[in-house]
Each structure stands twice: as C-alpha cells, then as structure tokens.
Amino acid sequence: MSTNSLIELRDELQEALTKIYNEYLQDFRKRKAQRLENLRASDPPEQYQLVVETNYRNELTQKVKQIVHQESYNMIYRIFYDAVHQFVSDIFTDLASLDSQSLILRILCLAEAFHTVENSARELGKITTGIFEKEPTYITCENVTKLAFFDKVLKHFENLIEAAPSVADKSCVVNDVINLNLELRSLSNRLRSSTKSTDKVFKEDSQRMNSKLILSGEDNTNDDVSFMSVDDIVSFINGDAKDMKKKRRNKGKKRCKASTASTSGSPKSEYRDMEYPELEKEIEEFSRRLEFTVKIPRLKPKFSEEWIKCLRDQITKIN
Which segments show compositional bias classed as Basic residues (predicted)? Predict the structure, then answer.
C-alpha cells in the first residue's frame, strides 16, 4: 500500500470514529435532558444499547485491519486514543455545566454518562480489536475507555461522589455511582501497576542489551557504562578501554532507533508507520549482531573489595 493510500485510509477511519463518538455524545445529551425533566432517583438509566450498524461496523473493522497489516500501530492507536479522549472530554464539559443543579441530579447524570461510555466501549471494541492484538491482555478498548473516563471525568467529581451517601432519596442508582468510582479506581491502580511491571521488565532487558553491546565493542549512542553491572564496569576499566572507544569512533555510519522483540507491536515504536527498505535492512543486520555472542576474556579486577563495595552502593543509590 502506498503512503498516500495509507494516509487516505487513516483520514477515513478518523472521520468515522469521530462520527460514531458524536452519536454517543448526542445519546448522552438526550439522557441528560430526560433527567432534567424527571428527578426521581429511583429511575435507573434506560438500558437500551446504541449499536453501530453491522455492515458499517464490518467496513471499519476491515480498515483497521488494513492499517494494522501495514504495521502502522502508532498511527492507528493515535486515531483511537484521540477520538476516545475527545469523547470523554466532551462528556466532562456537559457534566461540568450542571454545577448549579441539585446534588441528586448531578449524580444521576454521572450514572447516565457512564452508561453511554460503557456502551460505546463495547461497540468500538468490536471495531478496534485489531489494534490491541499484540498488546498485553490488560490493554483493551474497554479498559482504555474506562480509564479515560476515570481520569477525565470521575476524578473531577470526587467531592460529588463523596457526598452521594448523604442523599436523602438514595436508590440503587446512587449506590451504583459510588461502587462505580471504587471499581474504576481499582481498575486504574491495577492497570498502572501492570504497566509499571511491564516497563520494569523492558528496562531490565534494555540494560542487559546495552551491557552486551559495550562489552562486545558495538556502538552505543550513550557512549557510557551506566547500564553495566559493577563487575562489568571493573572489567571495562581494567581492560583496553581506549581501543574500545576508538572502535566506536570509527563507526561513522549513522545509527537510528530500531524495533526489537521487546518493542514490537507497541504503539510507541518510532518507525512502525514508515516504509524504508534501508531501515529494514539495518534492523536485520542489527538483529544478527545481537545473536552473535562474542566471548570476552575475564579480567581480574585490580581494585580492592572495599572500593568495589563502595562503587556498588553508589550505583544502587542512583538506580
């Protein structure tokens, strides 16, 4: 697929997602208007589901798959991310306009807002499933949407939710809002905890890779030993450091960031939505170098154990 065709496909999908989210926004405004006419807290949100027409949904699903097939994850994820965050931001604006209304009305509208957001997440999840195929299992359309709703809406109405138990005409709707806040807060904590764990593993893998590159004499853009273990640092200092640095300086070839096994499939990959044969060739060469293990003779440290212990403690504090 040519670059122009890919851009055209992106624009079509972006326009379609914006149109769908606008439909859900109008649905919420309709629900809000009905609440303004009927303040009875005993009335739960209407449970009808606003669905995307099947043929249209299938058409959009195919467009998502086409973009994913081109490995343009950064592009497709950004389209979805921008659309869902604009959607929940618009809902927040509508809810914020009710500040002068009664406590019970605002709580009821908050419940209506979540019903609409949850409804949209289920439908858009059918369209955008291809975006998350290579992501960790906890990253889904539904979770991304709920997290956006929690961050951009619920967090701004904490005082309102805390006051909910004091409502005289308490009903299942009021209790649902209280439980919803607890549920999404828990979800937010779990997702962020999982993300940190994943980032930690990625960081450890990156450290091991940088250490291997330095010891094997390969180029390192940082040109330092910040990712090496204490023993490797000592070996590096006692070894022929000058020759290693000279070898790196002689590598006049321009380097660029490349996708690795750890980053493949991530929307953050910098070159995923580009088609550069030279870049692909360099990635393959880089991968082959990583698979080739160079045996480095073990050098005996010339430093005292006390000095090494002091160095280890300093590095531990920095990390």
Answer: 244-257
**pLDDT given at position 234:** 53
Q: Determine the Cα–Cα distance for residues 123 and 115; give it in Å rounded to an integer.
A: 13
Q: What is the DSSP string of 39-53?
A: --TTSPPP-------
Q: Which of 183, 199, 215 is the last residue of a domain?
A: 199
Q: How far apart are CA 267 and CA 19, in angstroms?
A: 23
The end-to-end CA distance of the chain, in Å, is 45
Residues in the chain with pLDDT values less than 50: 197-227, 240-274
Q: Which of 170, 199, 228 is the last residue of a domain?
A: 199
Range of the domain at 242: 204-318
Q: For 97-147, what is each residue's pLDDT tens digit?
A: 999 888 888 888 988 898 899 999 999 999 988 887 777 777 788 888 888
CA quadruple 118, 119, 121, 124: dihedral, nearest 10 = -170
Do 125 and 251 lie in one domain? The reply is: no
